[in-house]
């Protein structure tokens, strides 16, 4: 069996590595010629995501290029710390933080080192059983096609032309990065600040640099085409004058800022055909509130590879994969949407973190 994977991000590269470990040949085809267009954006791989990487022996490069945290603090609008939580959950390895561009580069380099072909500048325009066609006129052939092409998945619309579009979460999210070590630090923790008008979170790396994000309530289309400076100004305005460190941290940030409107995909009715299947955000994008998008994609990648390894044909494998994954990821999307809207707290996440994948365990149909 040979797999053609559309998308060279988290889900695409890790699916390729998991398939390789399962003895299945795969190639990765990424639409963009290079990464880094979202400079300043960062993400966190939680316990369950690191567990998925560990299942295929791919956690090492991620650990080497990231930094960890031991817990989380919750801060009220008047600056009081009202809750502290430890990430020490039954001895599980804690979360890792890194820039999105660095994670993409790390995973692609690891995939290439394992003999996997990664082609950039390959934007999918059409696909049929056995063949993918790209904007530059080239093609790729395989027995199955895996859509790891994210929120605006082309593969999703090929599988089901009537699939629901992504849904606005009612939030703009701004990410930033500052090397100014004089600003308030949050070493080894994620400090989450609920202000009167918006939500701010930050953590500090061992070198004293600080990664931050701001979730700003906004209707879709209100802020479009903003420059880095304009996104920084929008985030600053949301916290200016409050007794919180947010405005100071934002003011210290240069052009390492990235912002955009946030969407989720609460339901994808059809995940697969006889020869095509979706993984990661292409199937079930969540709002960033729960911090689980990358980790769920990593889980998908490894579980799909195990299903293809253990079951007799692609349709049977795809059905088992969906059975194992759908309820969990749709629960996560709903939970994250509730966090974004403020209708629930972020307590009780052990059902997310304690998920474990045993590579040698056989999948049954």
Written overview of the protein:
One of its GO terms (molecular function) is FAD binding. InterPro entries: FAD-bd, FAD-dep_Monooxygenase_BioMet, FAD/NAD-bd_sf. It comes from Amycolatopsis regifaucium. Residues 3-334 form the FAD-binding domain. By secondary structure, the protein is of the alpha/beta class. It has eleven helices and 18 strands. Strands 6-5-14-15-16-13-17 form a seven-stranded mixed β-sheet. Strands 8-2-1-12-18 form a five-stranded parallel β-sheet. Helix 2 (47-55) packs parallel to helix 9 (293-310). The longest helix has 28 residues, at 314-341. The mean pLDDT is 92.
Task: Give descriptors for this structure.
single chain, 365 residues, alpha/beta, FAD/NAD(P)-binding domain, D-Amino Acid Oxidase, Chain A, domain 2, 7-stranded mixed β-sheet, 5-stranded parallel β-sheet, oxidoreductase
Number of strands: 18
- CATH classification, class level of the largest domain: Alpha Beta
> What is the molecular shape?
globular
Radius of gyration, taken over Cα atoms and rounded to an integer in Å: 20 Å
CATH architecture of the largest domain, by name, is: 3-Layer(bba) Sandwich
Quaternary state of the chains? single chain
Q: Give the CATH H-level superfamily of the largest domain.
A: FAD/NAD(P)-binding domain
Percent helix = 25-40%
If strands are numbered along the chain, what order do they take across the biggest sheet? 6-5-14-15-16-13-17
What is the CATH topology assignment of the largest domain? FAD/NAD(P)-binding domain
Which runs of at least 5 residues are low in confidence (pLDDT < 50)?
none
* Number of individual domains: 2
The secondary structure category is alpha/beta
Organism: Amycolatopsis regifaucium
Domain FAD-binding: 3-334
GO molecular function: FAD binding; monooxygenase activity
Keywords: Monooxygenase, Oxidoreductase
